[in-house]
Design brief:
Elements lengths: L1 E4 L3 E12 L2 E14 L3 E4 L14 E2 L1 E4 L5 E5 L1 E5 L9 E6 L1 E2 L5 E8 L8 E5 L4 E5 L8 E9 L4 E8 L8 E5 L4 E2 L5 E8 L8 E6 L10 E6 L2 E2 L17 E2 L1 E3 L2 E5 L5 H11 L5 E5 L4 E5 L8 E3 L4 E5 L4 E8 L9 E9 L5 E4 L4 E3 L41
Pfam family, one: PAN_1
InterPro entries: Pan_app
Protein name: Apple domain-containing protein
Length: about 400
């Protein structure tokens, strides 16, 4: 597009008239003086190149203040886009730079270390703000390097990063401490969540006759909060960041296998050094094999007894809360499931489930006894069995 612009033009004109009886006669009319600023002729898409300008492009602040002017620190901003499907992740990258006399070209690269390009090579942005749907490694810090280059080849480089790039649903499970209960009105459970992105403040719990999203037939969805899991007490070293071991090997994706490692403490160190996406590990004492996982036992992974395998879950990056329902009209022979609905700040929603609790108020039926001398029920409470868990023991007469 060619532009022809005359910024300023001045003219001084004059005329003289003579009035004669019934008529007017013009005796002079003309331009006395005039001045015009030189005309500018230029294509608006062509910028002049100044060889004597040694400066690279100026990096502008990334935020705008209340006066609509750019303020704050100079650099770039990157963040993961909220409220997208977990399988269709995207990030937004912003960087503002200008050069008074030449065009500026923006390019970016992504790496697992500052200045790295091992995740994505140098790519042109095409503008100051860029939204990119992309599948990137999760659970580890990612670093963006953005370069602004003018037509003389001079560059200004800035960096920004994300602690994690999340493409998975919140993982976890609902643990029912009692698979069977004879309490007539009480249910308890523990909600355990492992997630590398921050969680929202409010979540939901419910009780139903089935596990999952629709398991709210008995008690509807109610708000609940989750807390960070503390460090394990009475343990030193890397194992203090993990739970008490559970029997079995986790059947889930293996991030890494290391062997031989002489103790589970060394396996715990391996998991800690791997990054925040390592949330559990399985260790076999016999073969000294260490398997690192990005999941915990739950809906998408389960424990299977295998040799001398033990499974440890990582604390500190997880969340948990205890759930207790009182004064429920529980029914004999019914299995109840405490379900949880968990949401992280990206808007990813997952329903966590457990194995449920079966309510049983009656003792086993012995069948036909022909020479019966006595048959009665009583509340033996903790005297019924040495293996019975004596918490909230019912006074109901249900031992034969």
């Amino acid at each position: 597009m060619d532009l022809v612009l005359t910024p300023l033009r001045l003219e001084l004109k004059a005329f003289a008239e003579l009035y004669l009886l019934f008529t007017t006669v013009t005796i002079f009319e003309g331009t006395i003086w005039k001045y015009q600023v030189p005309t500018i002729r230029q294509n608006i898409f062509t910028k002049k190149k100044r060889d004597d300008d040694p400066s690279p492009p100026d990096v502008l602040p990334t935020t705008i203040n209340e006066r609509r002017r750019r303020a704050g620190p100079e650099g770039c901003i990157v963040y993961q886009v909220y409220n997208r499907a977990y399988y269709d992740t995207a990030f937004t990258l912003e960087m503002f730079a200008q050069d008074e006399v030449s065009e500026v070209k923006l390019t970016y690269a992504i790496g697992t270390h500052k200045g790295g390009t091992n995740v994505q090579a140098w790519t042109e942005m095409g503008g100051n703000t860029l939204l990119v749907p992309a599948k990137l490694p999760g659970g580890i810090p990612l670093h963006w390097t953005v370069s602004a280059t003018n037509t003389q080849g001079l560059s200004s480089t800035v960096q920004c990063s994300l602690n994690t790039y999340d493409s998975t649903l919140p993982d976890g499970r609902v643990e029912h401490p009692y698979k069977y209960s004879s309490h007539p009105s009480k249910l308890v459970a523990i909600i355990i969540v492992a997630e590398d992105s921050p969680l929202k403040e409010m979540h939901y719990k419910a009780v139903g006759y089935s596990p999952g999203q629709y398991g709210n037939q008995f008690v509807g969805w109610e708000e609940t909060r989750l807390d960070h899991s503390p460090l394990r007490q009475g343990v030193t070293g890397a194992l203090q960041h993990f739970t008490i071991p559970m029997d079995g090997k986790l059947i889930a994706n293996v991030l890494k296998t290391a062997k031989p490692l002489r103790s589970p403490d060394l396996c715990a160190e391996e998991c800690m050094n791997h990054g925040s996406n390592c949330v559990s590990f399985s260790y076999e004492y016999h073969s000294e094999t260490c398997d690192l996982h990005d999941q915990v036992a739950g809906a998408n992974a389960y424990l299977r007894i295998s040799g001398t395998y033990k499974n440890y879950e990582r604390l500190g990056i997880g969340y948990h809360t205890s759930v207790e329902y009182d004064n429920l009209p529980l029914t004999q022979g019914t299995q109840y499931f405490v379900n949880a609905k968990v949401t992280n700040v990206l808007g990813y929603v997952n329903h966590l489930i457990g194995e449920g609790t079966m309510v049983d108020f009656t003792p086993p039926e012995p069948g036909l006894i022909l020479n019966n001398q006595s048959d009665f029920l009583r509340a033996d409470q903790c005297n019924a069995s040495v293996s019975q868990r004596c918490l909230e023991v019912t006074r109901q007469e249900n031992h034969r």
